[in-house]
TrEMBL record:
One of its GO terms (biological process) is inositol biosynthetic process. Pathway: Polyol metabolism; myo-inositol biosynthesis; myo-inositol from D-glucose 6-phosphate: step 1/2. Keywords: Cytoplasm, Inositol biosynthesis, Isomerase, Lipid biosynthesis, Lipid metabolism, NAD, Phospholipid biosynthesis, Phospholipid metabolism. Its main location: cytoplasm. It comes from Australozyma saopauloensis. Gene3D superfamilies: NAD(P)-binding Rossmann-like Domain. This is Inositol-3-phosphate synthase. It is found in: Cytoplasm. InterPro entries: Myo-inos-1-P_Synthase, Myo-inos-1-P_Synthase_GAPDH, NAD(P)-bd_dom_sf. Residues 313-428 form the Myo-inositol-1-phosphate synthase GAPDH-like domain. It comes from the Eukaryota.
Amino acid sequence: MSVKFNTNAVTKDNCLYTKFAYESAIVEKKPDGVLSVTPTTTDYEFKVDLSTPKTGLMLVGLGGNNGTTLMAAILANKNKISFENKEGLVEPNYYGSVTQSSTIKLGVDAEGNDVYAPFNSILPMVSPNDLVVGGWDISKLPLDKAMKRAKVLDVDLQRQLVEHLEKVQPLPSVYYPDFIAMNQKERADNVFNVDSNGEVTTKNKWADVERIRSDINKFKKDNNLDKVIVLWSANTERYSQIIPGVNDTAENLIQSIKDSHDEVSPSTVFAVACILEQVPYINGSPQNTFVPGAIELSEIHKSFIGGDDFKSGQTKIKSVLAQFLVDAGIKPLSIASYNHLGNNDGYNLSAPQQFRSKEISKQSVVDDMIESNEILYNEKSGSEVDHCIVIKYLPAVGDSKVAMDEYYSELMLGGHNKISIHNVCEDSLLATPLIIDLVIMAEFLQRVTYKKVGEETYENFYSVLTLLSYWLKAPLSKPGFKPINGLNKQRLAIENLLRLLVGMPINNELRFEERLV
């Protein structure tokens, strides 16, 4: 479907130019408790490059469940590979992807009916079928065997994909044993940070940064790419300690890598390599890859970063349901979340330090909702939600992650409400569309620049891509700002950005067409 916009947007030299008046409100709390609200308006001009570049995606963890599922999805869709399962013939699709399988409301027709268009028809976006995929893995299995090991896809689809995947082998990766569970050691047979005796060494981390930079540039050159995006989909690491003088500033972080400090993780090494190459880097696991020094480094090099942790099943539901309860004036008192899964992610998370990283990313999802309502949450009535998270490794269930949640809330006059949810999801088939969306949107946002009306120079967005928060469990935010966790707010921000870029008003549901005389 194509859409023609009759707006004030102007196309010139294959770029789209739009002026937009950004309206907001500055709120000040007076000493007497009265809130003073001052509406403000700032005029911006946006510029969008309408050319879609040849884009490469390099996955850290290419041979894992998500990596092999992503490769399978792209190959099946690109080559129109249908397959049989117990329910019949399955045609390839990208269900679960916002950019490929959702719509945006454009407006209303002459009769007042809502009109929708595909998300990716509003502005030119890279097609996942055109992505050139490669990457690293600590396991050397070629992807056909890695796909079989993952046990995610139906056998008939696997059989048809073997010829496409058997020659694809991950690049050697970085392996620092202290950061992932010891139960992953047997998989680590494809590692480049080794000494002259072939033993793993963590004594030259700057050389690891340079090796990754070289891998990125070679991948870009070999495939004649315009852009490369790197995404971490490898094992969850333990949290890195934030230590003054080590990883608190960009300068200290670089020096700590050169000194091979113990608290520099593999994911941070990848992040630094990408930042120095001005390649967008997205962290799809819950560890604190983006230590303060990494964020500052991204600011200095004007390189995009995004994180942390894919928001696929339980947490996505939580970000909707908790917001619904608080917005309805109902007070959640406790949220108990239990998970069990049997894939390698669950195996790695069975180690306490790696589980702690996941627990932190899951717990933060309701923080901003609590802070939004001081009627429900205050010093007198209680300002916190008891939030318990349990993850257990059960090999028998494989990639089908089981999540059970209980929301216990307070109603008026001492009443209570309990909502229990039992959710079974195929983990990698939920996470893979998120990878697609994160990559496509990160690339798209590189093509958007802006300036205040009257200024000369167009600027890129701030380095931390908070517009990716919809797909991320513990969204990274600009230092000094709090993350937005509510799923509907996150989606609305993306939708309104696309609307303003083509000269449409931001979306609202006043529906004056039917509500005014």
